[in-house]
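Changelog-linked ticket: magnesium ion example.
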Amino acid sequence: MLRPMKLGFLAATLLPATLLPSAGSAQVFYGDPPDAYHPWAIHDQNRPKPKLVTPGTFSSVEKAGVPPSDAIILFDGSDLSKWKSGKDGGGPAKWIVRDGYMEANPGTGDIMTTEEFGDCQLHVEWAAPSKVEGSSQGRGNSGVFLMGICELQVLDNYDNPTYADGYAGSVYGVNPPMANALRPPGQFQVYDIVFRRPIFRDGKMLDPGYVTAFINGVLVQDATPLEGPTGHMRRTTPGPFPAKGPLKLQDHGNTTRFRNIWYRPLPPRSIEGGTDGVLTTEAAMAKRQEIAASIREDAAKLTNPSNPVPQMLRLFESLIYADNHAARQQAEKMAADYTTALKQLPEDRLPGKKDEVKRLQSVFDYLSRNKIVPAGFAPKSEIDAMVKQQRWDKK
Ligand code: MG
């Protein structure tokens, strides 16, 4: 796609005026600039665009849906090749696979993925046995253990009360689900989970970690802070998690079924090197330097004596992120040269420059307003004077 900024400068010669973006719509020199905690400007065109994902389809009770295109499939209904036994030193998983689902095989133990991962969006579907047996924690019990240590409860709570922090959808022993939205036993239920593991550094908790979960599209956990690995009867203690771990499904003696299990790894939080969100000043400034260097690199490719404006603006743009003596000198010289040449232009050629000059006026205004060029920046004063003199500020 053509960047609106570049379009603006080519436009004077290539495009009719009606195709020009207005100064206000060209989203460079536009939103508030980066600050000490945010490396990107508001509405920053240099900020990486979201990756493309082809969405899948939602599941129905009868039929599993299709995962999104970037999902990592852990179980597609065909085999347990991505799973191992949680006991006996991790031999083959001994659960039963049939008709597009797997079924817990009581007594054979928990199963876990061979693959290990951390922060994720996780999708799991499960069905309690249609033959209702037992009560409370004894009915249709299994569990989805994030990183193998933090259980989101799987239980048949359809007309089966138990203690609140042990319901399906609970962070087991820690936090009850906000609702009981279960379908009857025998029907598949859908778990959608967002998991962020705790982060500790030098023994200090920087982020407690969070789990958000939906059951059948109903929110049951809302960014619930983790309090360490879950357990039975004992109060848990916050502590560091490993960087990654397996997904574990529990054998609790019931023939619970699972299907359509997949996850999508999540990008790092700012605390782990991500550049979205609120950063430390150190991280924000480091990223700003990196962005500025990349824009300067791009500017170096734009050398064009017959149209120096795009290169000049790209250099000014780099200064929004980080100052650089050479870039500033070059940009300021180009701006001074530009206004000198503009003033020498024959009167009859000035109208053809109107859009370009007005765009520059808005850019210099942005740079001055945000203190990226000093107050009294001469090219700005000269451009302002030219606009006024030509009455380009009037309709
Ligand atoms: Mg359980």
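Closing comment: Example verified and attached. DSSP finds six helices and 15 strands in the chain. The chain has two domains: 4-47+275-389, 72-272.
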